[in-house]
Amino acid sequence: MIYVVSGPSGCGKSTLIKNLLSRLPGLQFSVSHTTRPRRPNEINGRDYYFVSREKFQEMKEAGAFLEWAVVHNEFYGTSWDEIKQKGNRGDLVLDIDVQGAKQVKKKLEKAVFVFVVPPSYPELEKRLRQRKTDSPEAIALRLKNARREIMEAEIFDYLVINGELEKALDELKSIILSHRCLFKERQKEFKEVLRSFKSWP
Fold first, then answer.
1. 119 conformational bin, left if phi > 0, alpha if psi -120 to 50, beta if neither
2. pLDDT of 134-184, one tens digit each?
3. Rounded to an integer, what distance in angstroms lies between the CA atom of residue 129 and that of residue 10?
4. Which CATH number do you get for residue 192?
5. How far is CA 169 from the centre of its chain?
6. Is 177 a domain residue?
7. pTM of the predicted model, to two decimals?
8. Confidence (pLDDT) at 41
């Protein structure tokens, strides 16, 4: 199953996903392409595939992306190759913006959409300033975009309010675990259970 996790910049979705990946076996992370500069703690191929605008444009024109968007004046996109390679190995989580989530919703029949929000606008502003990775102008742009993105929440299947990390993490984890327990998702396992009942004297 593909899980699309989205929300305003600074809502904590990346932190939630990082923690979830370490606690939930069988879950993989879809690495996006981006043209934004790499931050000091980021690794190419783990956090993002960092590419030039020219390279991104080439990929876009070749139809290489499941979804792509311009976010805070930079390009971001999820490649079809990433989906095909990792999606066949189990559950896959995408950390993408609202524009991208809307595109995925139109193109994929099977996907679960989760919207992550901070408990309040002042808290979001506080988090953006505290992480000290953006200029005042960039923060202002992210906050402006957040006002617009929050109005799109109703297109998602689930809502996680990230006020307390552990509580939000439990909620996100429970969404994935509940879908893994859907009857249609466990047909193979159930057949083994049935076989044991039928073979018992």
1. alpha
2. 788 889 988 999 999 999 999 999 999 999 999 999 999 999 999 999 999
3. 9
4. 3.40.50.300
5. 14
6. yes
7. 0.88
8. 87
